[in-house]
Amino acid sequence: MSGWRVGVDVGGTFTDIALLEEGSGRLRVRKVPTTSEDPVEGVLAGVEASLGEAGVEPASVVYFGAGTTLALNTVIQRAGGRTGLLVTQGYRDVLEIRRTRLPDAPSYDAARPVPLVRRAHVREVAERTMADGSILRPLEPASVREAAHALADAGAEAIAICFLHSYANPEHERLAREIVSVEWPDLFLCTSVDTWPQQREYERALVAIMNAYTGPAMSRYYGRLETGLRRLGIGCPLLVTQSNGGTMSVADAARVPVRTMLSGPASGVMAAVKEAREEGMNRFFTLDMGGTSADMAVVDEAPRFGTESVIGDFPLFMPAIAINTLGAGGGSIAWLDDQAVLKVGPRSAGAHPGPACYGRGGREPTVTDAYLVSGILGPRDLLGGEMELSSRLAEEVVGALGERMGLDAARTAEAILRIATANMYAEFLPMIARYGVDQREFILVPYGGAGPTHAFFLAEEAGLTRLLIPRTPGAMCALGAALTDLQMDFVRSVRERLSELRALEEIFADLEREAAGWLTGQGLSPEGAVFERSADMRFVGQSFDLTVELDVDGGHDPGDAFRSRYEQVYGYQDPECPIEVLQLRLLAKVRNPPPIFAGGALPDSKGPPRAAGERSVLYRGERVAAKVYRRADLPPEVRLEGPAVVTQYDTIIFITPRFAFWADARGNIRAEVKS
Questions:
Q1: What backbone torsions phi and psi does residue 104 show, to the nearest 5 degrees?
Q2: Close Cβ partners of 314 (under 8 Å, ≥ 6 residues apart)
Q3: Cα–Cα distance between 122 and 347 in angstroms, integer?
Q4: Distance CA 17, CA 7 (A)
Q5: Which of 532, 587, 585, 540 is nearest to 566 (CA)?
C-alpha cells in the first residue's frame, strides 16, 4: 500500500488540509474553521477527521508539511511576548534611528513606526568588534549578566542579541547567549548571526527581534503540534514551510520562526508552479485570495524572489518569494470613511464572527456578503453545502450600509466588489512595472477560497486574457505544504568591488560546506542536494542593490549577469561603471519527489453538461442570467460561455460574460476572452 502525504495551512479564517496518495495521485481536501484561540486543536481535529473520512490509517502518513501565518499575524497584531534586546555599548537607539526613513515621507501626518521592543528594554553590553572581524574591546561577561538580569526582572520572555559587525565575527554574540542561557534557561534566546548574518545593523537587529518576538509562542505551537500528531499515530517527521517556498524541520522552525513569516502564501505559489508546469505554462501571475487579503506573485520561468518583504510596519530582510498584497479578501469589511467614501478592508471579520452571512454574530458587511447579495454565491455553495449561508443577514448589513449612500442592497454589493477590484488593480500596476513584465504575455492562476470567485473581475480590469483554475484552488497552500522541497538559505556579507573580489569561488565553497553540515544535521546526504548561487550587487555609489542569479560553474561572468538584470529592470545600464558586491547567497535544496497526480474521473459526455440551475447575477449594473454547473460534471474540452457559476467543495468560480471556459484533460479549468 502506498503512503500518504498531508499538507496543512492555517489561515486567518479557515484551516485547510490536503491528503495526497503517492502511488495513485488521489487528492482529498477539507476546510475547517480556524480555531484562533487554539490553532493546534483545530489542526489536529481537522487532520483526524480528514484521515477518517478517507479511510487512511495515521501510520500510512509518510510526509507531513505544515504552513501557517501565525508568526506573521503575531507581528502584525503585536501579540508577541515581551522581548528584550542586547546591543553593543553606544548603540542603544538602533531601533529608534532606523534608516531615518518615514513610511510616507511627503505626508505631514506620517507616523514613525513603534518598535517591537521598547527603548527601556534595549540594554547595552560592553564589547566591540570591528568591520574586519577583529576585536577592539573584549566582551565583558559582567555587563551581559547585568543587562540580562534587568530584562528578566522586567518580565522579558525572549531576548535577541545583536552586536556591531557580528556577521564578520560571531564570537561575542554566541558567548553572550551562552552566559544568559546558563542563568536564565527558560528564556527564548537568539543571536542575529545565527538568525540571519547579514551586514546592516538595523536590518539584522529587526530580523533577530522578530524571531525573538514570535519565538515563545511559535515554539510552543510547534511543540504541541508535533506531540498531538504523535498522539494521533502519525510518526513521520513534521516539516514546516518557509517564506522561501521550501520546508525545514520542526526543530529549525521552533528555533528560527522568522523564516516562516510568509510560509502559507509561499507554499501556495510553489503548488501553483507545479500545477502550471504540468500544463506547459511558465509565465503567469498567481492570485491567492483568502478570507483576509489577496496576494499576488509573478512567475517568469521561476517565482520571483525578494530580500525585503514588509511585515506590518517593518521590513524583513530575508529571502522570500516576492508576495505582493493586493487588498481585500473574502472577509474584508466594507465601511464608509469620514467623507462617506466607500472603503473595503484592511479590517477583516476573520473566522469568528466572520461575515454576517455566516450567522455567527457578524454585523458588518464583507466581500463575502456582497457575493451573496449580488447572486454570485448561493446559500448552500460553501463546503459542499455543509456550511449554509444566510441571505437575509447579508442583505441586512449590506442594505444598512447602502442606506447611508442612497443605494439599495444589490447596488451596494456591486459597489463593494468594484472597490475590492480597484484595490487589487491599484497594487497590480506598480507590481508589473517593478518586475518589468507585460501582463498580456502572462496567464492568471487564481486560488484560495475566494480567488476563483473574484479572478475574472481582476482579469477584466487588468487586461488579462487567459486564466487557469487548478483542480483544488481552495486548498492550494495546503497542497503546496505537501509538495515543496526541503531547502535553506545561507548568506555571507563581503562588500567589495567585483573586480577586486578574488575569493568568489572560495566563499561559495565555504557556504556549500556550511550547507552540507546543515543537511547532515537533517539526516540527509549533501550529495543529493542542489546548490543555487546568487549575489546582491549594485553600481558603485548607489544605495539600492539587485539580487542576481549566478552560474559560476557554467563560465558566465557575474558582471554580465548583473548588467543584464539591471537593464531588464531599469531599461539601461552603464558599461563603464564598476560593480560592488554586498552579499553572496546560497540556496541549498533537496528535491521532494513529485507524486503522480490523478486527473480524476471526468464525464464521458462530448456535449455540453447539464446545468444544475440558473441564478440572476448583478454584473456591471445589469442583471444577467448565469448558468450554474458542478465542476465534477464538466466534460473535458467542451467549450462553454460566461456568465456562469461553477461550484465545487473548496471554492466558487464566477466566469464573467466576456470569457469562455472549458475543463482540460487533467481537470483544470481554462478560460480566455471570447473572440
A1: -140, 80
A2: 75, 113, 116, 206, 210
A3: 32
A4: 6
A5: 540
CA distances in angstroms from 548 to 48, 489, 561, listed in the order given: 44, 15, 7
Residue spans of alpha helices (H) in 140-200: 141-153, 171-183, 192-195
Cα(338)–Cα(317) distance, integer angstroms: 36
Highest mean pLDDT among 68-82, 171-185, 594-608: 171-185
Whole-prediction pTM: 0.85
All cell numbers assigned to 551: 552560474
| Cα 22 from Cα 9, distance rounded (Å) | 20
Other beta carbons within 10 Å of 304:
19
Which pLDDT score is estimated for 68? 85
Q: What H or E segment, with its residue span, contains residue 670? A: strand 669-673
Per-residue CA distances from 646 to 102, 307, 456, 613 (Å): 46, 38, 13, 11
Phi, psi values for residue 471, rounded to 5°: -70, -40
Taking 60 as the threshold, does the pLDDT of residue 631 lie above it?
A: yes
Cα angle at 467 between 466 and 472, to 5 degrees? 165
Q: How far apart are CA 636 and CA 14, in angstroms?
A: 31
CA distance 382 to 377: 8
The neighbour count for residue 246, using CB atoms within 10 Å, is 26
Tally: H helices and E strands in the chain: 16, 35
Three-state DSSP class for residue 665: coil
Q: Tell me, what amino acid is at 472?
A: T
User: What mean pLDDT do residues 160-185 have?
Assistant: 96
Give per-residue pLDDT as tens, 234-256: 999 999 999 988 898 999 999 99
The 10s digit of each residue's pLDDT in 544-587 is: 888 888 875 556 788 888 998 898 888 888 989 999 999 999 99
Tell me the three state secondary structure of residue 284.
strand
Task: Show the 3-state SS of 530-592.
Answer: EEEEEEEEEECCCCCCEEEEECCCCCCCHHHHHHHHHHHHHCCCCCCCCEEEEEEEEEEEECC
Q: What angle do CA 188, 308, 187 make, to 5 degrees?
A: 5
Distance of alpha carbon 444 from alpha carbon 470, whole angstroms: 11
Contact 167, 199 (CB under 8 A): yes
Cβ count near 430 (within 10 Å): 10
Tell me if residue 61 falls in helix, strand or coil.
strand
